[in-house]
Amino acid sequence: QQLCLCFRESDASVVVPVFEHRRGHPVIIGRSLFPALLDLKPGEGANEVIRKFPTFLLQMNDAAVLLDIDRPEDYALL
Questions:
Q1: Exposure of 13 by Cβ count < 10 A (0-12 exposed, 13-18 middle, 19+ buried)?
Q2: Are the C-beta atoms of residues 49 and 36 closer than 8 Å to each other?
């Protein structure tokens, strides 16, 4: 909820949760960046796009934002 509220109220194209100076998940990316994301080449990540646009770093009080669940194996470990 905090991320969504921050995204709606800021002028940033991207909102990234941060815990103890470490970027976390999920990252909210504005619709205006979707074309650039779709143009990424194989092997390139969203950070290639995110670094080029205004980003709001939202300080969080929960280390859970540092968890990255991309694969079924990640979910199983959780």
A1: buried
A2: yes
